[in-house]
Amino acid sequence: MKEDMTRILIASMLEKAFNDGKSSPRRAARNLVDLGVAFSKGRFQKRFLVYAQEMLQDQDSAYYDLISDVIVHVDRNLLVNFGMNLGYNGCTKGAQKIPVP
pTM to 2 decimals? Predict the structure, then answer.
């Protein structure tokens, strides 16, 4: 499968986020969500990511523990592949293929 430039840029941002996440997982998570909000085009994508931003405003959010645990215990390649398949392929490329009534 030929990769497009957007997919390559997103994958490189994920790699950077995982590197940053080792030292500051909270900041890395917020930065990824902020990037998603800034570059999302669909109203449902933007709404979902704005909700994620709101959840991460709570410094005691259980999501921070989850994010830290995932970064430490899950293989980075699996995370990048999962994120690309769900986020990029599913929500972006895949969503464009679904006809809107």
Answer: 0.71
Q: Quick one: DSSP state of residue 74?
A: S
Q: Report the half-sphere exposure of 3 (CA within 13 A, side-chain side).
A: 11
Q: Which residues contact 10 (CB under 8 A, 6 or more apart)?
A: 84, 87, 88
Maximal C-alpha separation, the chain = 46
71: which 2 tokens? 């970064």
15-53 tens-digit pLDDT:
888 888 888 888 888 888 888 888 787 778 889 889 999
- Give, for 33, the enclosing helix (H) or strand (E): helix 25-39
Give dist(CA 18, CA 16) in Å, integer. Answer: 5
Q: Which residues, other chains included, contact 84 with Cβ-Cβ below 8 Å and sequence gap of 6+?
A: 7, 10, 11, 14
d(CA 53, CA 44) in angstroms, rounded, equals: 14
Q: Which pLDDT score, from 0 to 100, does residue 97 have? A: 66
If one counts every other C-beta atom within 10 angstroms of the C-beta of residue 79, the result is 16
